[in-house]
Amino acid sequence: MVSAIFIIAAGLGAGFLIGLLREDQKGAAFTVALAALGFMAWVSVSWFVALASGTAAPQDIITAGTQPPFAINLRMGLAEAGLLSVITLTGLLSLVYMAPALRALGRRALAVLVILVMALSGLVLTRDIFNLFVFFELVVIATGGLVLLSDDKRAVAAGFKYLVVSQIVGILLLIGIIFVYHANGSLNIDDIAAQPMGFTGAGLALFLLLIALVVELKPFPANGWALDIYEAAHPGVSALVSAASATAALYAADKLFAAAGPDWLPLATVLGLVSFLGANLLGLAQRNDRRLLGYSSIGQIGLVLVVVGQRDILGDAYLYVAGGILFTHAVAKAGLYWISGLVPGRDLADWAVLRTNPVLLFAFAGFIAMLLGLPPFAGFYAKWDLAHALAGADRLPVLGLVLLGALIEAGYLFRWFGFALKRPNPVAFPGFSTTGFAVVLAALAGGWGLGFVWGAGSVHGNLLLAAPLLFALAFLVLEPLPAWAKNLLAIAGLLGWVGFRAPGYDPLHLVFALVMLAGGAVILLASFAVKGERFGFYPSAMVMYAGLALLIDAQTSFQFFAAWELLTIGSYFLILRGKESEPHALSYILFSLGGAFAILAGFALASGGLQPFALDNLAAIAEAGLPLAPWVFLLLAIGFLTKTASVGFHIWLPGAHAEAETDVSPMVSGILLKAGLFGLWLLLMHMGRQSLFGVDLTYLLVWIGALSAFIGAVLAIFQEDAKRLLAYSSISQMGYALFGLALMNHLGWLLALMFVINHYVYKSMLFLAIGGVKERTHTKLMYKMGGLITIMPFTFVSVLVGIIAMSGVPPLSGFGGRWVFYNAIMSSEMRLPVVLIFMSGPIAFLYLFRLIHTIFLGQLKDEHRKLKEASGWLLAPQMIFVAFLIGFAILPGMVLQRVDAYIGGHFGSTALAWSGRSITSEFGYWNPVAIMIVIGVIFVIVLALLVAMNRNAQKVKQFNIVFSAERPFKPQTTHFAWNFFAPYRKALGFLEAPHVTRFWGGITDSLHASADFTRRIYTGNGQTYAAQVIVFVVAVYLVVLGGVS
Amino acid sequence: MHLVAMAAGFALILMGLFAALTHRNILRMIVGFTLANTGVHVVLVSVGYMPGRAAPILDDAVPVAEAAARIIDPVPQALVLTAIVIGLGITALMLAYAYRLFRARGSLDIADYTELKW
Amino acid sequence: MNTRFSIRHAAVLGLLALLGLAFWTLLAGYTPDAELNRTAAYYAENTARETGAQNIVTAIIVTYRGLDTLGEVTVLFLTAAIVALVLGQSKAPRGGTGSGFLPSGELLTTGTRMLLPIILLFGAYVALNGHLTPGGGFQGGAILASGMLLMLLADPARRFGHRLIARVESVSGLAYVAIGVLGVALAGGFLDNRILPLGEFGAILSAGAIPLIYALVGLKVGAEFSSMLESLEETEDS
Amino acid sequence: MSFEWVQIAYAALTVFIVINYGLIMTAVVQKIGARVGGRYGIPVWQNYIDLVKNIALRSKISHGVMFYLGPVFRLTGGIGLLLFVPTIYGSVMHQNFAFAGDLILALYFVFFGTLGMALGAGESGHPHAAIGVSRGLAQVTAAELPLALAVFAISLQYQTLSITEIVAAQQGGLFNWTLFTNPIATLAAMFALVGTMMRAPFDVVVAPQEIPIGPPTEYHSAYLALMQTNRVLFPVAKTVIYMNLFFGGASNWGEFAVKVFAIYMVSVLVGVVHPRFRVEQSIRFFLKWGLPVGILAILVV
């Protein structure tokens, strides 16, 4: 194993050697630099591998043949090795990436780069505070030099501001160092006695030392200079600063915080939180990509500083957590900066150019996911453990703030991704460097690699080894295949998985598995209608299905949450595919992530930090009647309610479902919503009733359900957009299901189960049908259609069956749901919420009739006369659904009987009596077959009568109607469709007022406003920045002083 | 005595910072920082100083045997040398930047270089 | 100015007053050691034996804290390089520079001729005796550079070979690093000066590698300062 | 309850009786109205004449399949509703097909005819039809609400959803009727009755003056005949439910005739003394008066 000292020696040697070369030997100089950095990287990585695999022991390197503290010593441990690997590799890649700029500037620039990397390594290795200072100054000077690489004229000014601030930091450092030395009689970090946090002499000296190091981390709000560097410097340099320098500086701070002892950790926590929240908040108002990345870097480093502040509770997990976040951030941020070097424009929307290069787009998505700690990347495991440690140590405020900050960050990052995917873009990449491209890919690979390593190190098992996820990721490789081939594979995969897993499931799991996965396969039939390659569809869709598959399989809270995140991401990318869906996809992902964080907090709270936490243990918590039980319940419930789009969290749904592609709408509506129900069902199954401040939370849920059912229906009848109408009706239907679940009785759950199945069937069917119509008429506005029955008879039939089923009119399956519903409410105490449900029933009838009438009946428009029936691939699943609906209507027992028995087992209540064909509850009875036959017979008889009486009725033309004794001349004027329920609006229009939208809108607006206001502290004046740094230091000093005394 | 030196050092630092924070002329700012650095160096050496002892050089005056009792703390002196050189380096760099800025815009007013903000 | 004074200056004053408060706490809490602390004591007792240097400070700088010094040298190297970068980008057309200067006075020119050798000699002396007497490579180097400065003043149009300076600079740097590495190979660790015999205590050729290193440092520092002066000199409006 | 073939014959009989009863009753009601108004009025057999005339009509047109099926749905709905509910309590003959489902079935099957009718009218392409449907649906959502609540109330009261059992529970004396045991629920239900009988003040759906008879605008000949049949059958079928739920049911055809007539007259009486409501007015009316009573009904049970 090569001693780490050679990393430094090599760096210095190379630097001087390059100086020796002639100005014109640029090639040679470049080679030397490359060799040196390569060597340094090789040493670091080999150490990391050796230490991680335990084949080598940590090494202390002494210099001058004298033991510390009398001579400077270095240390190479696991953490150091990891950090060095990141730093040196970043340096190496940056060298390649910046090669043209560096060559242009001459060999000296190369020397500067190499020495910068050497200095950063020294920062990590050294155990001597003054030596630390020396390396710091080296970093400062080198950075100051590299800033010149930028062709941006403003960079020089930025560099100067940076030097000004570094002067102040240097002063503080030196004062701190010398007094610490005076107090301890040693400059060695390991000798820094843990001073009680008194502010006499040493304590204060230590404070100056720490605060100086913290300022080096560019903490909000004393960081204007850093932002200017990030914005103006060459992207390669920014990458280096953000990935390597910040990482090294953070470790330096970490070393001293570790030495300073636990009393100082709160300082790190608080400063970190301020930085994390502040920077992310201000990021909201940014339009310049590099500056935005700067804000995000500052935020992330702040987050790691928070982790540093938690080292007392993290224990052995400390390196795992801190490393997970820090490394992922380094890789992702470097990658993003490198991409920004390829993107010509500086406005966020200019990233739309990435669309011309799918690989870069994929990289972009990957890096964002890494930054946000989404699975399967390393940050995910780290965030999970962090949350659990915080919850375990009752540091809930910290947990809450961290999650809040993460949510804000998600806000601007995903908005940005939306821009990239949806904003107008040039047809091709102007000027595009292949080396840069390669470097980006390297970073991407690194990110995935980290994800794999962290997964391997996780107690929960490696997500990247989960079969469904692998299957989904495989589609990334298969992208070049034609859509039909991928579709075939996808369907096979889904069915295969269900077939493979189904035997192990209990009836309830089985129902969900069939609806979500087998059901997904059925919907995928419609995807055959799409020609071409359909880039990006299958990976997203399959990630969503993988998430669903894992969700059903989940045994522990971790597996559940990981699956939850996966299906959220997948569905987000799916929804984002829609033409107009940019804002809706954003609000979807934000609500979903918010919900996910609530779930995370809930699980963390429940587990009390002990992992792995089996889902069944929720029951134990409930039985133990711990005071935190209701809170766990509340958090988890909130998380799931965001997914079911219950009223209050519903505003994302209409846009998201309505703007999605034809075959995506049924997936996200018919299938995805069920994930929320699944979660709620698990929750209620395990935790049962919980009451908070005397309020029975299930009672609350009943109200929310009823309210959703009602509001959803009312809003649906006022829509002019067919798909929005269906979307709102989904809110209503989910409300029914939630209502049923929350009734907490046997029939209530059966009701919910029936809604899970029915809603999947008829909503998927209707979305496909309406989607088919839209693809023919190119509009979603119902009043622009009309009279399509003759042109699209099959579509009409499926819509007809769909609405009969949904409205609960006998004989179709919807009625069964209503019947169970009545029996359920009769055996429950709830009275008032029922009123809302009663009301929403007939209202559903209104919007459903509007749907079928204004599209298929009434007057056919001239421009639609030549249309054709929807594509056969769209009709195929619809016909399957029609068949199923009728079958399910006649023989509901086939599906429900086992489930019924299972639920009965859970409640210890008597199941329904499934005698022969009739179903009997303790209150009433119901015989589907008889109903079907009776109605059928009567219908046939009456029809026969009619035919007998006027078989010779003649078919007349469209306008042959009695119209005030006149013949209408235009379908537009004759088709009564727009604002169809005007009287209703007159009577109940006030229910339409968008209070919820205003509420959330108000929150986001105020966030943006405060961000835009606050960021004006960065006046751009170097002097002001310097003053801000001092203010920051003094302020913290006074606060801590106050805290101590 | 030593306190005087140290106090003077601190005073220098504050004065330097005051200059650097109030003068908008870049050169004056640099001078201010140099002043502050000098102050830091004074503080550094004053920490090592011990009344009534000799410089840490082992010659006939200070035989090796009794060195420990006779000399002052050598470490700060070693440190201060490094600090001085580094301070010099940064100052030189700042001057170069100042020159470059002046070339670019013909102004040395720090307030004129605020295109980057927010 | 006056209008701004009342506001900004008052604010800054208040701010620095608070900072001063912190400094004051340090000052008040400070009591000089009666005895050398353990580190210092160690040096006092072992320097002679371990490094054979009379000047303990030098021993510390070159050996015990050699890594610092190496970094320090690197700082100068970097600065020189970057200054060259910064100024190099606004370089004057070849030969054109300095031509605008009046030839400096007779006195200065003659004085330079007389003083320069002495200055250089003195510089070398200071550098080489660092381990015995106050002084050392940095001081020596600075003196050497001052000689260069004097020459430039005497004849602004004068140029030294860039290559030469660069060579000296880099070679001495490389040698320094090499010695450090040798320390790992032959002695107790990086930059251990005992790769050469410690020699007789107090002699000029003693204290192992220290004089060598200091000589290199002197050369390097001198070269670096000179190159900085050069760069400044060569900017078009000097 | 299980099925024997003979029940079909019985059911047919029920339908036959009810249709004729309806034809005459509605005519009688008309006549009474006329007499009150000082006019001579139609002969009581007028409905038969109209029926025959419509069937005999020669000009017959169709606007399409749904248009054709509309009346069929309508009448199926009427007959079905009648047959899913036991007509005469205690009589084996007239239990009809009540074994197929309980109260809930009846409650939801009401919509079957409405839906089919609306679809048929929709395909006629006549704006007045669409307007009529829109009005009708809008109004029914509010009007049916009190009934739903009242039904919930009494099914809680009797702890069953089976109509037969509910009727059984009301036997043995006038004061066992729900009317007296649960007046609030009954009152709520009556709101719904008045609101859904297509009579003033809630007949804006067919508002002859503005939108010539609304949904059926385009219908004629045999279509109209079917719908006419339904128009006499359906109210009776509905009234039967009310009778069974709130007025102790009927144990023989005489009682049946009287009770149905009496209940039906309620809506007639209300109708003749009130002007027509606009839709939003009737919605507000039901929400303001019907709904609270209904809520009260389910709260006090």
Characteristic key phrases:
heterotetramer, B: 118 residues, mainly alpha, 4 helices, C: 238 residues, 8 helices
Description:
The complex is a heterotetramer of chains A (1045), B (118), C (238) and D (301). With 1045 residues, chain A is an all-alpha fold. Chain A has a domain at 466-938. In chain A, the strands form three sheets. Chain A has a three-stranded antiparallel beta sheet with strand order 5-6-7. In chain A, strands 1-2 form a two-stranded antiparallel sheet. In chain A, strands 3-4 form a two-stranded antiparallel ribbon. The longest helix of chain A is centred in the last third of the chain and has 32 residues, at 746-777. Chain B has one domain (2-51, 70-112): Helix Hairpins. Helix content of chain B is 67%, strand content 0%. Chain C has one domain. The model of chain C is unreliable at 92-99 (pLDDT under 50). In chain D, α5 packs antiparallel against α8 (183-196), α8 packs antiparallel against α9 (221-246) and α9 (221-246) packs across α10 (253-272). Chain D is an all-alpha fold and 301 residues long. Chain D has eleven helices and one strand, in the order ααβααααααααα. The chains are: A mainly alpha (1045), B mainly alpha (118), C mainly alpha (238), D mainly alpha (301). At the A-D interface, α31, α32, α33, β7 and α36 of A face β1, α3, α4, α5 and α9 of D. β8 of chain A pairs parallel with β1 of chain D, so a sheet runs across the interface.
SSE layout and pairings?
The complex is a heterotetramer of chains A (1045), B (118), C (238) and D (301).
Chain A: H1 5-20, H2 26-52, E1 59-62, E2 73-76, H3 78-105, H4 107-125, H5 129-146, H6 155-184, H7 202-216, H8 224-232, H9 235-260, H10 265-283, H11 289-309, H12 311-314, H13 317-342, H14 358-371, H15 378-392, H16 396-422, H17 434-457, H18 467-478, H19 483-501, H20 507-527, H21 537-553, H22 557-576, H23 582-607, H24 617-624, H25 629-643, H26 652-659, H27 664-687, E3 691-692, E4 695-696, H28 697-717, H29 722-742, H30 746-777, H31 793-807, H32 813-826, H33 832-856, H34 872-890, H35 893-907, E5 913-915, E6 918-920, E7 925-926, H36 928-950, E8 954-955, H37 971-974, H38 982-988, H39 995-1014, H40 1022-1044
Antiparallel strand pairs in A: 1-2, 3-4, 5-6, 6-7
Helix pairs in contact in A: 1-2, 1-4, 2-3, 2-4, 3-4, 3-9, 3-13, 3-17, 4-5, 4-9, 5-6, 5-9, 6-7, 6-8, 6-40, 7-9, 7-40, 8-9, 8-11, 9-11, 9-13, 10-11, 10-16, 11-13, 13-14, 13-15, 13-17, 14-16, 14-17, 15-17, 15-23, 16-23, 18-21, 19-20, 19-21, 20-21, 20-27, 20-30, 20-34, 21-22, ...
Chain B: H1 2-22, H2 26-48, H3 67-70, H4 75-105
Helix pairs in contact in B: 1-2, 2-4
Chain D: H1 6-36, H2 46-56, E1 61-62, H3 65-83, H4 103-123, H5 127-158, H6 163-169, H7 178-181, H8 183-196, H9 221-246, H10 253-272, H11 279-300
